[in-house]
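If you are new to this repository, start here. Below is one unmodified record pulled from the training split, so you can see the exact layout before writing a loader.
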Amino acid sequence: MGEPTRFKAGDKSPKNAVYREIGETGANVEDPMIIELGRGDTFPATRNKNRVWTYK
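And here is the target side for that same chain:
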């Protein structure tokens, strides 16, 4: 069982990394929000409720 690659708002970051928002089906979005989180930081809300966070 591997580490998850998609995260929702309120989830904790598994490691220090840069994340970007994508569509819930994995589709790219126009002008995605990009954030840098440390291990254990909480993911913020995305701009659209149908989006999730993934590694950049």
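Two things worth knowing about this chain: The chain is about 0% helix and 30% strand. The first strand starts at residue 6 and ends at 7.
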